[in-house]
Amino acid sequence: MTEATASPGSTVLGRGLGRALPILTVLLAIIAIWYLAAIWMNATWVRDQAVRADTVLTTGDLIRQTLTLERPVLPAPHQVAAGLWEGIAGQKITSKRSLVWHGWVTLSATLAGFAIGTAAGVLLAVGIVHNRAMDQSVMPWAVASQTVPILAIAPMVIVVFASMGVTGLLPKAMIAAWLSFFPVLVGMVKGLRTPDAMQLDLMHSWNASRVQQFWRLRLPSSLPYLFASLKVAIAAALVGTIVGELPAGATSGLGARLLSGSYYGQTVQIWAALFAAAILAAVLVMLIGALERLTLRRMGLAR
Amino acid sequence: MTVIQARDVSLTFQTADGPVHALKDVSLTIERGDFVSFIGPSGCGKTTFLRAIAALETPTAGKLEVADMTPDQARRQRAYGYVFQAPGLYPWRTIAGNISLPLEIMGFARADRLQRIARVLDLVDLAGFGGKYPWQLSGGMQQRASIARALAFDADILLMDEPFGALDEIVRDRLNEALLDLWKKTGKTIGFVTHSIPEAVYLSTKIVVMSPRPGRITRVIDSPLPRDRPLEIRDTPEFIALAQQVRDGLREGHSYD
Ligand SMILES: Nc1ncnc2c1ncn2[C@@H]1O[C@H](COP(=O)(O)OP(=O)(O)OP(=O)(O)O)[C@@H](O)[C@H]1O
Ligand SMILES: [Mg+2]
Fold first, then answer.
1. A1, A181, B133, B212: which could form a disulfide with A121 (CB 3.0–4.6 Å)?
2. Cα B54 to middle of ligand 1, angstroms
3. What distance in Å separates the CA atoms of residue A19 and residue A40, rounded to the nearest whole number?
4. Is A102 strand, coil or helix?
5. DSSP secondary structure code for residue A193 in this structure
6. What's the complex ipTM?
7. For A199, which of B80, B88, B102 is closest by C-beta distance?
8. pLDDT in tens, A50-93
């Protein structure tokens, strides 16, 4: 609705450009800074090499070499892009070197953990809103659960599950759920409590049961809050899964890819895996955002 | 037949700044089919009294009976239709869906629901708007929809707390006329809170004047006006005399403190 007020004669293309321009500017700035940082951080090594080989470097040589190292301290953007492209399109997707394959391993555990975490968060929130004892007892524990460093917990979870013979998706999903239930819990408690006194009074005057009040008033009113926290939760689930892939022994998933990259000094591989994770997170958050817009617009709850 | 009977009803809110006597020794009898207006300065306990009748507040002293039951028993039997100052329609339900809400909660069958929705939409002059969403309607139409919602399940008692407070004079006149019409057609007992003297006089068979600190009734005026009231009745000497009585009653309450 607001775009409609843009100056007359502005084309769809013009409007799209108007919105993309600030983003593009920032992106270009970041890339420029990145290149400078790459030159600066890799220069020491390049100079050392030159001294050892007894050659004299022109500035042009220096820059060219800092940006094309095999194992740079900081790979340049184009190297990361090439690594990313190589990992995604340059391999059979069943290959152990394919980022698509590793991404899928991570994604499946993320989605499973997200589902478990969301269900747990919603159920706990419903309990908290309807039960005084739960209201006073659950929240402190939920907060405490999030203050435990996940990096410390993750290996224990993996080991405990492994000792029971469970490996693969489930242990990672549990860690993802551990991180993602919390935002859902907080958002849902707030959301289920949004109906104002007047709407609750109306329900009361109709002698509505608590179940009717929940399905017809509290749950629909909470949806904007639920969607907002789902976006946080899916990103948290992805982080949890990747952390779950870091403990020794993991060979698949973006987390494992990060770790093996750092073992072998494959900085390009690390950064490519990092970007793959970031892109995955962005896509997931955008999907939930689209679902949110669709649902809230249909419910008349959009701004 | 007496529908609402209040005897020495007091209601004190315990607040951080000490007790607030919202109602003090309020006694009132309302007969079936009465249209009772409550008028008085802000904070005199009009809303509190209406809420106490609807079992949304509990009196701290005295006796309040609705159709020989406690207000809460009456609430459980769904004796009240309550209309607030704001329409409070659900944005995710159409107008028909909003009116259907209490009917669903009360377990009316689908066919019955549809029939009732059509009837009350007609009653508040919103026929044809059932499929619209609240945001597609004007404020006055939304308020009429909320009245339709309160009427749909045929509660005996309709309680309205400044239902037209937020609307302009012209719309208000129209809705007042419609409300009188509706009251004549349905024979309901209506409790109506307002700040407007002409509105109170035009609508009511009984005008209750209240005053604050502590909230109490200073005057109960029985209207001699006939039940059939065209808008022009507001220019008759009887109407003006009645309005003068209400004004005197309000002034009396003020000189008290
Ligand atoms: N829930 C509450 N807790 C504490 N005090 C309250 C509460 N509700 C009302 N009061 C107090 O009781 C008194 C009567 O309030 P009430 O809302 O009944 O007034 P009113 O006549 O409806 O006023 P208005 O015309 O402004 O709507 C006021 O002093 C108010 O501050
Ligand atoms: Mg009030």
1. A181
2. 16
3. 33
4. helix
5. T
6. 0.87
7. B88
8. 888 888 888 888 888 888 888 888 899 999 999 889 888 888 88
Neighbours of A140 (CB within 10 A): 9
User: Containing H/E element for A257?
Assistant: helix A254-263
Strands B216-222 and B206-211: antiparallel
* Residue A11 pLDDT: 65
Query: Least CA distance to B153: which residue of chain A?
Result: A206
Q: What is the dihedral of CA A30, A31, A33, A37, to 10 degrees?
A: 130
Tokens of B219: 């005057």
Q: Which chain B residues are closer than 8 Å to A300 by Cβ?
A: 91-92, 133-135
Integer Cα distance of A267 and A264 in angstroms: 8
Tokens describing residue A46: 């390049």
Kindly state the helix (H) or strand (E) to which residue A224 belongs, with its residue range: helix A219-244
What dotted CATH number matches A99-298?
1.10.3720.10
A207 touches B at CB < 8 Å:
yes
CB B136 within 8 A of CB B145: no
pLDDT tens column, B166-207: 778 887 888 888 889 889 888 899 999 999 999 999 999 999
Tell me how far apart the alpha carbons of residues A67 and A165 are, in angstroms, rounded to a whole number.
Answer: 46
Residue with CA nearest ligand 1 atom 28: B43
pLDDT of residue A4: 45
* pLDDT at A2 (0 to 100): 44
Q: Work out the minimum CA distance from B232 to partner chain A, whole angstroms.
A: 35
Domain residue spans in chain A? 9-74, 99-298
Question: What are all long-range contacts of B86-89, with beta carbons under 8 Å and residues at least 24 apart?
Answer: B86/A198, B86/B166, B87/B134, B87/B139, B87/B142, B87/B143, B87/B145, B87/B146, B88/A198, B88/A199, B88/A202, B88/B146, B89/B134, B89/B142, B89/B145, B89/B146, B89/B149
CA–CA dist A20, A8 (Å, integer)? 19
Minimum Cα–Cα distance from A223: chain B residue: B92
Residues contacting residue A158 through CB under 8 Å, at least 6 positions apart: A171, A172, A244, A247, A249, A250
Q: Which domains does chain B have, with CATH numbers?
A: 2-79+156-254 (3.40.50.300), 88-154 (no CATH)
Give residue-wise pLDDT tens across range B89-124: 999 999 999 999 999 999 999 999 999 999 999 888
Give residue-wise pLDDT tens across range A137-174: 888 898 888 888 888 888 888 889 889 988 888 999 99
